[in-house]
Amino acid sequence: MYFANLSFTPAVAAATVLLFAFSYLFIQRAYPRPLAGIPYNHASGRRILGDIPEIAEYTRKGGSFRTWFLAQAHRHNSAITQVFLGPFFKASVIVSDYREVNDILSHRDAVDFKRGIKVDAFRGILPHAFPAMETFSPDFRSSRNLARDLMTPSVLHAVNAPRIYDVACHLLELWRIKSRLAVGHPFDIANDVSEFSFDAIVSAAMGLEPQGGDTKHQYEQLAKHVHKNSSTSIVSIGPDADSPVSFPAALRSVKLAALHIDEDSLRKSFVMPWPKVYHLLNNLRPSVRGARRTIRDYIASQIVRAIPGLSDGSREPQCALDFVIHRELRAAAAEDRPPELADPRILDPIYGYLIAGHDTSAGSVLWLIRRLVTHPKEQDRVREGLKTTYSEAWRERRLPTVTELTKVHSPHLDAFIEETLRCDTPVANIMVMTRHDTIVLGYPVPGDTRVFLNLTGPSLNQPSVPVAEADRNPTSKAHNAADRENWDAAAPEEFRPDRWLRDGPGSTPVFDPAAGPGLAFSAGNRGCWGKRLGYLELRIALALLVWSFEFEISKLSSWETVDSLVSAPKHCIIKMREISY
Description:
- The chain is built from 22 helices and 14 strands.
- The protein is an alpha+beta fold.
- The longest helix is centred in the middle third of the chain and has 31 residues, at 344-374.
- The chain is globular.
């Protein structure tokens, strides 16, 4: 009856047709629009949500969205695939080939590719740090130059190594108490490793407070509990040998809690369609503003503490911040001006030091321990290698000193670290964007397309997917190193640290980091700036841990991963037994 009373004039009819046409076009626009020729999941191409439902189901079953990305190459038998990440999103491209990824990072960055949205994600937190700048930006080089001398071997060994060593010794003391209280039962090590990595990177970046960091505080608090109470009143031990033990723990420091807030903000901004808008709103939250203030206030307090000694020359720089302050003091004196130590161009890179170094090193240490417990023979081999390399320390029944660890490397230790990073790369893929229409592996890719570069997977820890030489970029052809193209001839899916060893003088094993391809620290101008510091931390930590403990697997362990800024083991419940030496 209602419709019978409506008057359908030509104008109303035209408006109705236009409305339906607009609605139809709007809905069609929301559907995926595949790039010509590049393989994709055809069922996802017919869904308005694209690949999102499949990724959600994969992660619900314990997988990681990063490993889902890694699986697409073999699924389609193609080193280049495309995915659809939601309504109105342009198709994204995945490249799963060491040689092509290395070429893009090393020779095509700032030419055919840019960081794009990733820059926007960092800019909302650290606008003056180089991760928030495009490689072709004039400010990028000057920002990186502020810290140009912080990764030299002399600074790493003389300044950073002793600090990392001290923090690692605090972790040993904490785990000695826990292993004794646990009497063979497993316990969760994830928080301990997170706190150790935070203390190590804070110590290297700007120094710890006189009372020490979170790891030392946890040790002191647990030691007090042991002193005041019997061990049975501190922990509850179940009848099952695999029942995990929990311990009383001190609250994490406000600095670590603040860093976690900013790490979470950065992680979320990476998956937002518009990171600028996300940060604009997220930065209004009191908890976020408080976290930024906490870290920046700590940096400011360390600057105030350092200035007198660095100004009069009564002490040498002892951390990254000290070197930056020292350089600015000298530059100000030479130019007859006041030092600009509150300049965000100085503060932001130091803050970035923490964000970039904490999660990656924590994830790497967890993967190292995970590999120790799943490969006990390799654990024994690393330990025997340490005894051989640091034989004097073993004879004297003591820990190797920091000088011994930095002066001479144990090849089996280095090989184990390199193989773990190959198999369990904490950052499995990174995203870049095309600067303009370009060609990737023979396919045209429009400008402003998201391109995910797999730093692991096919050709690295999985068999490679064939790529026709004619489809490769000219720079890839010009810089080809055939012996480093893939691991296909050496069982890429197997965990074999000896792949990184070769015979040296007298048939003694020698670690060879160039034995095959690896992208654990990315490559090119945007490769991990803290690579040397990362290796130093992992080498010191693993050497002291394997020297001091035997690690055993628990039934509660699994290969499930958790995704944050990096990928790490989801369950880190480990048994350990203290070694008497």
